[in-house]
Amino acid sequence: MDRPTATTGHTVTTCVLLLFVLISLFCSFVIFGAEHISRSTWWAVLLVVLMVLLMGALVFVILQQPENPKKLPYMAPCVPFVPAFAMLVNIYLMLKLSSITWIRFAVWCFVGLLIYFGYGMWNSTLEVTARQEEAHASTYQRYDTGVDDSFAMDEDLYPQDDGSQYQGWNAPEERGYQYQQQPAADELDHNRASQGRRPKSKGKANKGFEALVADDDMDYSPE
């Protein structure tokens, strides 16, 4: 097995957690049970040897797992020996601190977390920038939404090369020309007929007007 898998990653994670618990127990027993170790009590010595063997077994299991072949800018040297030794030293130094130091540490951690989650997280430059970008993205409207891109040309628009004369576009134009010629001829005949009847109607109108004028002259003639 040359490359890491999900199983090997899970195995390493489990071993690291168990190693952290064992190192914490080992350092606690060495610091707070130093009196029993100094008197060489059999159960104390047996417990220390057992924890050391278990830690060694976990380190060996981690060592057998394949490493990631990808080269990173920074990689811990001598894995897993240097990380395990760093865990051992740091936990030992932390357990050597006094109680008042742990109380101060807890108080200042609570104050820092309160400031961070109450003010810093909501007013940081990164958070404000992310909100502005999100607001800008939400107000951006795409004008091509709902447009059907699957446009296909209709095959009926193109003439079929089957030897026959294509009547798709020219036929309506020719029919329209004939239809336009027929109403124009009818309108011309109607105008000629109306012009032929116009003099008669004009004469009748003139005679009627002269009769009215004569009647008026008779009504207003002096006696």
Automatic annotation (TrEMBL):
It comes from the Eukaryota. The keyword Transmembrane helix applies. Residues 195-205 have a biased composition (Basic residues). Pfam families: AA_permease_C. Residues 162-223 are annotated as: Disordered. The chain crosses the membrane at residues 12-34, 40-62, 74-95, 101-122. Signal peptide: none annotated. The keyword Transmembrane applies. GO terms for molecular function: amino acid transmembrane transporter activity. Gene3D superfamilies: Amino acid/polyamine transporter I. Keywords: Membrane, Transmembrane, Transmembrane helix. InterPro entries: CAT_C. GO terms for cellular component: plasma membrane. Residues 213-223 have a biased composition (Acidic residues). Residues 74-124 form the Cationic amino acid transporter C-terminal domain. This is Cationic amino acid transporter C-terminal domain-containing protein.
